[in-house]
């Protein structure tokens, strides 16, 4: 019975793409590598981290991160190296500084501009006088009554 439960747990456990030959001997460095690779996007799979992806490019990126950590880089230096090489698109959570601040602020700014424009339109519309409706002349009213009788 215990073997069945163990087998079910192993089947239900999440499958990570990190291969045994990629794992570092130092558990601390491996934990740092896993932490970094969960924040990096697989450039093939798009919305999957390199830690979860089975793509060859994701494997190359995982190995590159581990190389940088073994070489003595800090987490930030390793991420900066990857970003310098592949661009900021490789980050699953983009940075909010630099040119990206415009992208982060454009949504709220557009919403505010739309609300201001809607308010100005409604204020201008409320201040407009009622349109004058032209009345029918006596001859037109008589002609209309004649048409409606038919």
From TrEMBL:
PANTHER family: CYTOCHROME C-TYPE BIOGENESIS PROTEIN CCMH (PTHR47870), CYTOCHROME C-TYPE BIOGENESIS PROTEIN CYCH (PTHR47870:SF4). The chain crosses the membrane at residues 101-122. The keyword Cell cycle does not apply. Belongs to the CcmH/CycL/Ccl2/NrfF family. This is Cytochrome c-type biogenesis protein. GO terms for cellular component: plasma membrane. The keyword Signal applies. Residues 1-17 form the signal peptide. Residues 6-148 form the CcmH/CycL/Ccl2/NrfF N-terminal domain. GO terms for molecular function: metal ion binding. It comes from the Bacteria. It comes from Roseovarius azorensis. Possible subunit of a heme lyase. Keywords: Heme, Iron, Membrane, Metal-binding, Signal, Transmembrane, Transmembrane helix.
């Amino acid at each position: 019975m215990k073997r069945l439960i163990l087998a079910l747990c192993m089947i239900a456990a999440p499958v990570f793409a990190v291969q045994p030959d990629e794992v570092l001997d130092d558990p601390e460095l491996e934990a740092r590598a896993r932490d970094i690779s969960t924040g990096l996007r697989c450039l093939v799979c798009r919305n999957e981290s390199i830690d979860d992806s089975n793509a060859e490019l994701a494997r190359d990126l995982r190995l590159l991160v581990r190389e940088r950590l073994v070489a003595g880089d800090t987490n930030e230096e390793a991420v900066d190296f990857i970003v310098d090489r592949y661009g900021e698109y490789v980050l699953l959570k983009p940075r909010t500084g630099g040119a990206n601040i415009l992208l982060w602020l454009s949504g709220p700014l557009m919403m505010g501009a739309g609300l201001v424009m809607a308010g100005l339109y409604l204020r201008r519309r409320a201040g407009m006088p009622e349109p004058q409706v032209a009345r029918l002349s006596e001859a037109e009213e008589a002609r209309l009554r004649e048409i409606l009788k038919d």
